[in-house]
Amino acid sequence: LPGRLFLMNFSNLLAIARYETKLLLRTARFWILCAIGFITASAMAGFVILFYKFGSGEVSLGGLFAVNTGGYYSLVYFNTVLNIAIIFFVVNIISKDDSSRIKDVLLSKPVTSFEIVVGKYLGVVVPVSVVAGFTMIISILLSVIFLDVPIKFQNYVSYFLLVNIPSILYITAFGFFMVFLIKNRFAVIFLFLGYVVAIWFWLSNYFYNLLDFGCYRIPLFASDLIGFVNIDKVILQRILYVILSLIFIGASILMYPRLRQIKKEYDVLKLLMGFFITSASLIIYHFPAEFNERTEYRKKALQAEKEYVDYKAPLIKHLSLIH
User: What is the dihedral of CA 25, 29, 30, 34, to 10 degrees?
Assistant: First the structure.
């Protein structure tokens, strides 16, 4: 087909994405999500403004902390709502396909499973990312209007790119994978909510923060003096979730309920998934090694400090400057 590249015809893919986006925009759930984003951003910005204006009456360390982390907290709290809302969007898309027989129409057309799954995936990811970006812009505007201190816009953009985007990509891909794997929407919603709650309240602190897909416990605070500290680990962890999203989308394409088409294309897809799985495994392997290296360094530093602490300083009983 003209314009075909690897597994996709871009015109088919974009047509499916536009269709799913239009359906999503017509649901009340999406606009409720927009309202929650506005309320979350306004509430966190209001907290920062009150903290800064009425806390100490001047620029203090607490005020600077609030200014620098206000965008982080607004995006992280809204990210929690996004993670829960996305699974309802995904389940709704798949169930509507079955109930309205749209899937039968798609399967009768010259479109690949790749185009169908990725098109539906983009139909969720793009509008949800726009809402998250809208939340970030509200936080910036409110901070600029009501705070008389310089606002670092790059901090807000960094929070958006590191907190929201990887989470949206991962959770949407994981949602598609679960829907195609379990095929029972109520079971999918129940298991998914249990997964989010377990990560949020318990597992995010364990396994070197590798399970913290929503940045709930990862230290990602910016300072006016030194900017972000040890952000390399955060970036690597977020890259891991982008790679996992590609793995889950690839698995969803392979699991899409239809007859297999061109065997070579599926073989190439499997090779790509093997590459992504290897990359994710290397990142996961790197985290314990780095943690153990830092732990060993801390032990040596504490041992050196202990040696100086235990060293008895000379006691001067008499001092005279007169010869």
Answer: 140
CA dihedral 233, 122, 269, 98 (to 10 degrees): 130
Q: How far apart are the first and last CA of the chain?
A: 103
Answer whether 0.85 is exceeded by the pTM: no
Other CB atoms closer than 10 Å to residue 195's CB: what's the count?
Answer: 18
Strand-strand pairing, 8-9 and 4-5: antiparallel
Distances (CA, A) of 133 to 36, 59, 156, 229, 243: 13, 29, 10, 24, 22
Question: Cβ of 70: how many Cβ atoms within 10 Å?
Answer: 28
Amino acid letter for position 45 = A
Those residues with Cβ within 8 angstroms of residue 20's Cβ, 6 or more apart along the chain or in another chain: 93, 119, 120, 122, 123, 124
pLDDT exceeds 50 at position 3: no
CA-wise closest residue to 158 among 271, 47, 72? 72
